[in-house]
Amino acid sequence: MPKEKNPLYDHRRRKAQTMLVHGGMERSQYGETSEAIFFNSGFVYPTSEGAEARFDGTEPGHIYSRFSNPTVETFQTRAALLEGAEAARGTASGMAAVTTAVLSQVRAGDHAVAARALFGGCRYVMEDYLPRWGVETTLVDGRDPENFTRAMRPNTKLVFVETPTNPTLDLVDLRAVADIAHAHGAVLVVDNVFATPIWQKPLELGADLVVYSATKHMDGQGRALGGVILGRRELIEGDIHTIIRQTGPSMSPFNAWVLLKSLETLPLRVKAMTDGAARLADFFASHPKIEHISYPFHPSHPQHELARRQMGGGSTLIALTVKGGKEAAFRMADALAIVAISNNLGDAKSIISHPATTTHQRFSDDAKAEMGISAGLLRLSVGLEDPDDLIADFTYALDEA
User: Fold this and answer.
1) d(Cα 35, Cα 26) in Å, to the nearest integer?
2) Closest by alpha carbon to 262, among 193, 346, 323, 205?
3) C-alpha to C-alpha distance for 103 and 116, rounded to whole angstroms
4) What is the pTM of this model?
């Protein structure tokens, strides 16, 4: 029987783990087993008429790697299959994905609403960058959906949130906020990095666009920068594609290839890291030198019920507040032997950071307080090490704190 008649010939009928190994694969004439890397910047046309047809869109095909590239296209297809999106576009970094997604949906004179608890770069885009181009932004406490309702205006075109939030792991009710945004004719963009596409599906909960820093869990080994925007075809292939084509925040073919290889193990890594994070959350919650922890699947999280409703797992990240403020937090971090001090996350190696002096350093004390970032707060990204070793490492370090 021809394999084209096999129901599983359609990638969309395969389970996530299978799609992440085979999705979007188109072998060249050489029949390679691994995805090929197309390093070329340009493409040759058979005739002048063929070139004209490519440029006016009547004939499919690649024109220039700033616009599209076969390796990048394979990554986009695979990411879209995992997310359940109609289309996707890769970008040079996670912030390129956020900025492109946001700018594509607004014009001068428009209004945007965002949750105030955001990664520092994301908040810069919403709070500082958009107003330069005539787009006013209102920041709200994203934990209560009614705050979005109160902030909406007739000219509101965009709502932007991340959930769980960076670094405090607060949650936004995506279904409720999507309904509010759509009732006012606005597009909802969700940064889903902390949840990962393994544990949360914003498009199924009503989001219009989802963005990721592929540098984080998708690569997961500290090697390659990248970002991806996913959503409805008309949004992705409309203004988003045009902005990428005309302004150039394009993904490198080599980085796309690295990310493709990493996607093959994404579910295995995320599930193991999440299991480790759950164990560490229990450890921290009972330790006398820890003032507070935030982990969505821990019963102490104030939005625990919402986490169980819209997420399939508790994330690979934990926010913990050490008693004694900045000095105690620094002493503990400096005493760790296994866990590295860095500002990355989603890595196979466990990483700890002090947001108040690194990723959110530029914000005023009042703004940090609004976002729940105290002097003793640390953000822990749990890696693939044995959880027993990590607990032993933190036991020693907390004694030093």
Assistant:
1) 8
2) 346
3) 18
4) 0.94
